[in-house]
Design a protein that fits this description.
- Helix 3 (about 60-65) links the parallel strand 3 (about 55-60) and strand 4 (about 75).
- Helix content is about 30%, strand content about 25%.
- With about 350 residues, the protein is α/β, with parallel strands linked by helices.
- It has 2 domains: about 10-225, TIM Barrel (Alpha-Beta Barrel); about 245-354, Lyase, Ornithine Decarboxylase, Chain A, domain 1 (Beta Barrel), CATH 2.40.37.10.
- The protein has 10 helices and 16 strands.
- It starts with a strand and ends with a strand.
- Helix 1 (about 10-25) runs parallel beside helix 2.
- The longest helix has 18 residues, at about 170-185.
- The strands form 2 sheets. Strands 1, 10, 11, 12, 13, 14, 15 and 16 form an 8-stranded mixed beta sheet that branches. Strands 8-7-6-5-4-3-2-9 form an 8-stranded parallel beta sheet.
Length: about 350
């Protein structure tokens, strides 16, 4: 048994997926399952497929390569790099785009491969990450795409919350719907997909405020952690522990709570501060900041306090715990979204399915 490790409960991921898919299906929305947080691990993606997603999506071509045998359309979430357009056409059926130069290159590479690559044009509704911001440019882009061979415009989409923290609302998503109608009316084109964002849009479904023309959401965190991301609320009847971090104690000793001597910088260039609580029982575990941010792990034993970490060591206060820990014992944590991302990215953290 290898430690530290992330334990992945595939049944819980499948369950969460089905809950979200059913919630969305009730109002005519298909779910694109986002696999980037778990680095495109095929078994987890397959659990999402079993839960009912319609499209598999990731930000990295490297992950879509791992998932090439899954019999669903593949979507590249991050805007394509010009240097990767050939691979994008090879491994992704659809991509999100906001630059004509890139779309023209995708057209060129698709023609070389005898394919038609589908494009979703991203619209910036104010979060100020990717997307066309000036409304007058949207029709120009669409008109140019219509005249390109090798690519097909299948929809428009937006991204909210991820950068600027702008919360999806009936008002801002209705702007996306209005843009869709204007495109169809003025340019005689039918758009199949109106993608209304990510897990931060889920709250609109619960409020009954999702514009009815929105027919796609790109969901990752709501599936893997069972929470919407506009306000951080738990989604009813979902699990928040589909991913658990388990670490091993390598030292257990009673020590002062304040270091002895002049305090300088720690291993990461910061000057730490300490609260004097007297002598405390401290457990050191074999994981560190190279693998995880301590802000992203939540001890399942609520009596454990996280004191800090260096690159390879996690230091815990276990003084108040009922359990009499010993060296070699395991301690488990729930993970935030960032915790899932970082721990699964680390090659020093094992991944097992339960």
């Amino acid at each position: 048994m290898m430690y530290p490790r992330v334990e992945i409960n595939l049944e819980k991921i499948k369950h969460n997926t089905k809950v979200l898919v059913d919630k969305c299906k009730d109002i005519g929305i298909e779910v694109t399952g986002v696999t980037k947080s778990f680095c495109g691990i095929k078994e987890v993606a397959e659990a999402m497929v079993e839960g009912g997603i319609s499209i598999v999506a990731d930000s990295r071509i490297e992950n879509l390569k791992k998932l090439k045998d899954i019999k669903l359309p593949k979507l590249l979430l991050r805007l394509p790099m010009l240097s990767q357009t050939e691979q994008v056409v090879q491994y992704a059926d659809i991509s999100l785009n906001s630059e004509m130069e890139t779309i023209k290159k995708l057209s060129e590479k698709a023609l070389e491969k005898g394919k038609v690559h589908k494009v979703i044009l991203m619209i910036d509704l104010g979060d100020l990450r990717e997307g066309i911001f000036k409304k007058e440019k949207i029709l120009k882009y669409v008109n140019q795409i219509k005249n390109l061979k090798g690519v097909k415009l299948v929809g428009i989409g937006t991204n909210l919350t991820c950068y600027g923290g702008v919360i999806p609302s009936k008002e801002n998503l209705s702007k996306l719907v209005d843009i869709k109608k204007e495109i169809e009316e003025k340019l005689d084109i039918k758009l199949e997909i109106i993608s209304g964002g990510n897990s931060s849009s889920i709250h609109l479904i619960d409020k009954g405020e999702m514009p009815k023309e929105i027919n796609n959401l790109r969901l990752g965190e709501s599936i893997i952690l069972g929470r919407e991301t506009a306000y951080g609320n738990k989604i009813e009847n979902t699990y928040d522990d589909g991913f658990r971090l388990v670490v091993e104690i390598i030292e257990l000793k009673e020590k002062p709570s304040v270091p002895i001597g002049e305090i300088g910088m720690d291993a990461f260039g910061n000057k730490p501060t300490f609260e004097d609580k007297g002598i405390r029982k401290r457990a050191i575990c074999a994981i560190g900041k190279q693998d995880i941010d301590i802000e992203d792990i939540i001890p399942e034993d609520k009596c454990i306090s996280i004191l800090g970490a260096s690159s390879d060591h996690l230091i815990l206060d276990v003084t108040e715990c009922d359990k009499n820990f010993k060296v070699g014992d395991k301690i488990s944590f729930k993970l935030t979204y960032g915790g899932v991302v970082k721990s699964l990215t680390s090659e020093y953290v094992s991944k097992i399915f339960i």
